[in-house]
Write a sequence for this structure.
């Protein structure tokens, strides 16, 4: 018993020294969002196939990255890393990084450090979470209550004090938080019998207000995000499922030469059928809906008041075929009805409307390790809706490793 208490005290001290987890993405700007017509097809075309996704969820230690073209200047980036070490049945240590970029430029996020404590070696645990940062003002400090253990059959409620030491440790300038940001997150993953898989998360970040007295400026930020996956597996290699995810984001910036407010909402819903996982042909058919809206209000220049919306309803199919121990083809066809609209509230002559059909054919070549736990894929895309005048549509690269 004394040994267990010593381990607990040591771990508490370690976590306190390591500090905090990242929630607010440190974006202190109003983002001008203007996507290309085919971008939601691009994002879906370059996501990991279902069997690789299951590998990711079934392992606690893994990393993966995707970089794919959105247009001649911008890219879709998905990067994730998770390291998990079980010191004993009482203590786990975790290290994670997770970021997805497609609608605005974002800073690279700091990694999260986490210590999970199970005092009775059962399912009930607590987590001390944090992020090391050179400037202590950027540290987030948090706790989580856990029931169960990763990768499946667990639920956790997480609380974060974002930039917890900002007002006490800011030595760079005179800015300070008038309203301290906080984050509350509920997350879980469950195997329900032999035929159902459920994963979910929902997070709410309270409003932060940063004051810059030297420039008579302020910045406000408030957001929430959510994710749901529900899959039915009638047989081990077949899946019928739905995935829903999205976010809401409200920001405002006020200073003598600029007073703007931004409201951004995104939702994505994907319904799919997959068969042949682990066999000679893995086939996926689905339909997906994406909608992003971005409304900007400018209280100095009213002519810039803008309501932007882009939505895409697509149907798609992809086929994966390994033809020897290490190599495989992965082909995909995506066809979508795209509606993109910009409405300037004070000057209708600047309004734009793009309404049409976009189609993309993606050709992928994969090289993997013999055990299938490491996968490198290279993709190129063709404009199937205009193959003669504009045949090329960029490409991408992805890699995943579980260990």
């Amino acid at each position: 018993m004394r040994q267990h208490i010593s381990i607990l005290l040591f771990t508490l001290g370690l976590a306190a020294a390591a500090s905090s987890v990242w929630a607010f993405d440190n974006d202190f700007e109003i983002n001008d969002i203007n996507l290309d017509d085919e971008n939601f097809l691009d994002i879906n075309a370059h996501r990991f196939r279902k069997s690789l996704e299951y590998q990711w969820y079934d392992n606690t230690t893994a990393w993966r990255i995707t970089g794919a073209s959105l247009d001649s200047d911008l890219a879709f980036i998905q990067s994730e890393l998770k390291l998990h070490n079980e010191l004993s049945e009482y203590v786990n240590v975790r290290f994670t990084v997770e970021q997805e970029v497609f609608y605005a430029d974002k800073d690279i996020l700091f990694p999260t450090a986490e210590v999970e404590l199970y005092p009775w070696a059962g399912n009930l645990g607590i987590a001390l979470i944090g992020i090391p940062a050179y400037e202590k003002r950027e540290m987030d400090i948090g706790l989580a209550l856990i029931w169960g253990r990763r990768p499946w059959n667990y639920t956790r409620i997480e609380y974060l004090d974002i930039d917890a030491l900002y007002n006490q440790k800011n030595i760079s300038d005179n800015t300070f938080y008038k309203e301290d940001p906080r984050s509350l997150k509920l997350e879980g993953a469950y195997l329900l019998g032999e035929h159902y898989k459920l994963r979910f998360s929902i997070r709410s970040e309270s409003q932060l207000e940063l004051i810059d007295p030297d420039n008579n400026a302020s910045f406000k930020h408030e957001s929430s995000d959510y994710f749901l996956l529900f899959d039915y597996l009638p047989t081990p290699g077949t899946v019928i499922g739905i995935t829903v995810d999205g976010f809401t984001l409200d920001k405002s910036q006020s200073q003598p030469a600029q007073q703007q407010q931004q409201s951004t909402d995104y939702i994505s819903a994907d319904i799919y059928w997959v068969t042949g996982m682990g066999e000679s042909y893995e086939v996926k058919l689905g339909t997906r809906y994406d909608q992003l809206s971005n409304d900007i209000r400018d209280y100095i220049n009213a002519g810039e008041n803008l309501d932007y919306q882009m939505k895409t309803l697509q149907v798609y199919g992809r086929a994966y075929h390994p033809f020897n121990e290490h190599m495989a083809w992965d082909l995909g066809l995506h066809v979508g009805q795209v509606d993109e609209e910009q409405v300037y509230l004070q000057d209708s002559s600047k309004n734009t409307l793009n309404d049409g059909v976009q189609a993309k054919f993606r050709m992928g070549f994969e090289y993997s390790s013999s055990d299938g736990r490491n996968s490198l894929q290279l993709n190129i895309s063709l404009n199937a809706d205009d193959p003669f005048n504009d045949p090329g549509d960029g490409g991408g690269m992805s890699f995943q490793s579980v260990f």
